[in-house]
């Protein structure tokens, strides 16, 4: 667990640092993530100059409804929590969990509403944030996003996002390679963290990680450094 004060101190440190970029979502921590970021923004008297908030519009947590009305409601809740009237980057989040993909891609769907909110000045840029490459690829082909965020699909143990990265960059989209530590295991090690991509890890899943740990140990390289550099060295 993370105490409220530690969370606030972390946000303050990011805003004061050389790369004041925070990625969050309306549904992270059942809204607590945005609430805590917003608390710091309020105490600072507004978002610091040069800081970037990247957040996401989300489906209804109970019904999984993900149509235009839902994303509009999601953004309204976000702006209230963050004490902002606009954000720099706004993603449509996890369309693979929508009650129906038509609610996302259809003529009255959430994607069309996302781009409309950009036109209204509520976001400087819009993107797609998810982990399911097979769901993301056809959407990226059809829609001209400013940015793509994919998690847990380009790291030491999984390179499924390579073709999608090429597609996005080829269309002029920024690409955010999220979660290069597989949710923690590739940072803390298999003994300290038996969680892989937000799930309890089986022995079968941990076995290749332990092989990587052995290679790192033989070469005196921290596992987390290898995981981060694998992501950072990709052009």
Which descriptors would you attach to this protein?
single chain, 235 residues, alpha/beta, 6-stranded parallel sheet, two-stranded antiparallel ribbon, 44% helix
Describe the structure.
With 235 residues, the protein is an alpha/beta fold. It has helices at residues 4-16, 32-43, 68-82, 102-105, 110-119, 133-142, 162-170, 185-188, 203-219, 223-232; strands at 21-23, 52-57, 87-93, 123-130, 147-151, 174-178, 195-196, 199-200. The protein has a six-stranded parallel β-sheet with strand order 1-2-3-4-5-6. The chain has a two-stranded antiparallel sheet with strand order 7-8. Helix 2 (32-43) packs across helix 3 (68-82). The longest helix has 17 residues, at 203-219. The protein is globular. The two termini are 35 Å apart. The mean pLDDT is 96.
Topology, please?
Blueprint: H1 4-16, E1 21-23, H2 32-43, E2 52-57, H3 68-82, E3 87-93, H4 102-105, H5 110-119, E4 123-130, H6 133-142, E5 147-151, H7 162-170, E6 174-178, H8 185-188, E7 195-196, E8 199-200, H9 203-219, H10 223-232
Parallel strand pairs: 1-2, 2-3, 3-4, 4-5, 5-6
Antiparallel strand pairs: 7-8
Helix pairs in contact: 1-2, 2-3, 3-5
